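Hey,

Quick one before I head out. I ran the complex with zinc ion overnight. Inputs first:
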Amino acid sequence: MSDHHLHLHPHNDSGVAHPQAEYRPGLIEEYVEHAAAAGVTELGFTEHLYRCAEAAETLGRFWDGPGHPELSAHTEAFVEADRTLSLERYVDVVLAAKDGGLPVQLGLEIDFFPESIDAVLDLIEPYPWDFLIGSVHWIGPWAIDSSDVTWEFDRRGIDQAWSDYFELVEALAGSGTVDVLAHVDVCKKYGHRPDAEPIDMYAAVVEAAALTGTAVEVSSQGLRNPADEVYPSPRFLQMFHDAGVPITLASDGHTPAQAAWGHEEVVAAARAAGYVSRLSFDRRSRTVAPL
Ligand SMILES: [Zn+2]
Ligand SMILES: [Zn+2]
């Protein structure tokens, strides 16, 4: 079994100056050992590109877009505090572990900003990625998955927030730029849900993913948050299954103790939707493994 969404550092607090992150000896081994205890023997690391200093110029001041000025200020402070990684160093550390025989794959979590996605792909092109996952964390200046700024759900309205979010996810799925859609309904993270599940929005994302051959991850992150539900929801995951969209398994863990977190729950959710297999990756080509 596998966990194809792992980070090597927790996020940093806004408003605090943080030193560049270190990769202590044995860090990746700790993830491998912790996951193995849960029966998970294949790990895909997917560091956030936006946290890497090398991406600062390419991504630019994406928080300057139209929207409430407090949202721009929040995102600017958050990104500034969180940008303590080096892409070069991250790649070196994971490749060294892989070359040393550990069961790890080199991935990256990319934010989807329509205006810079092409430049981002150019930036990361030189590296030997096994797989890329794509996310929407920001709608313009609004960090939709941040507990600091959930008031924007009230200001904008939940229906509008979900519609704005899924418009970007549909564009990401339709772009065919990544191998896997990450936490595809993270808009429910803090429990802001419309009266009924937006089946039309789901269908547009599913159709785009099916057309471009993009997979979707089944993630336990939602179980650690007020959403209290795997991403995607049972109905949404059923729609992916019925359209033939493959899956990966994911914890979105940011510490060794979170490696393979909620593994049994994500496998159960996938099986309940009818899945009998999941993907693995090697240098952007995929293989199918039993679930
Ligand atoms: Zn994410
Ligand atoms: Zn992540």
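Residues 5, 7, 46, 109, 252 surround zinc ion (ligand 2) (CB under 6 Å).

Talk tomorrow,
K.
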